Amino acid sequence: MSQHGCDGRGGRSITPDTTLRLSRYFGLSERFWINLQTRYDLEHAKDRLAGRLQEEVRVYAGSL
Questions:
Q1: pTM for this one?
Q2: How far apart (Å, rounded) are the C-alpha atoms in residues 59 and 64?
Q3: Lowest CB count within 10 Å: 4, 9, 24, 39, which one?
Q4: Cα separation, 56 vs 53, whole angstroms
Q5: Which keywords appear in this protein's UniProt record, sorted alphabetically (predicted)?
């Protein structure tokens, strides 16, 4: 697999191209790889924004 979007150190996201290649190579679904990337991105954002979210975003008090 010469083309990849993730360097293993969190430097870049897994691209759709890489998702398809990994899926075929390992026999796992495309959704597995997309979900893996999404979970990583979410956890990274939580860590990065940990203290700021409470200060910058108020909880919506109305009803939906």
A1: 0.67
A2: 13
A3: 9
A4: 5
A5: DNA-binding
